[in-house]
Amino acid sequence: MRLNEPRVLHEDEELVVVDKPAGMATAAGGGIDDDASLHAWVTRHVGARTFIVHRLDRGTSGAIVFAKTAASHRRLSQAFEGREVGKRYLAVVDGHVGRVTGEIAEPLRTFGSGRVGVDPKGAESLTRYRRLERLRDADVLEVEPLTGRRHQIRVHSYAIGHPVLGDTRYGIARPVGGAPRLMLHAAELRLPVSDGEPLAIRADPPPDFEAVLEGLR
Questions:
Q1: Average pLDDT over every residue of 180-207
Q2: Catalytic one of 19, 57, 94, 167
């Protein structure tokens, strides 16, 4: 499946929010050339230096913010660390969750391999979810990670026995459900501003996400 092009969702003098396609790395590293990363694309778009504030997994699509100045990078990074940023994802998980709404509060630890797992010695982690649609063999969930741990939604979903479809790392049979992409999409960011209501930026699920979803109905 051919990569979609990134597109700008919002831009001002301090930041730019981009709709990241699935399959595109946020930053260089791990065999990804700098020119092929989303960060490089954003820098070319802006025509000046930009700063990575947070990351999305390579397989995840959706809204991600980059800072244009060192000052805005500090402010946004502090907002993420202080849990002042609202994040809403769409996740399609294998099987049916037991309750329409719920919370997962398993502590998470990153191991040397880069894999994340539930561990009593891990960092406090909290994910809240709500079922939006029940499919034949899967559920569509609206998910809010209230902490920002690596692979948090994917690991928490796996921990309750409902891994994200298309996941190639967390699941018994991988990719989970045979899905051609990770069925995780960053649908909304709510960014604090100096005064007034938070800046809410939404990203609609892309065609490749919708195509998989339609096939599950």
A1: 93
A2: 57
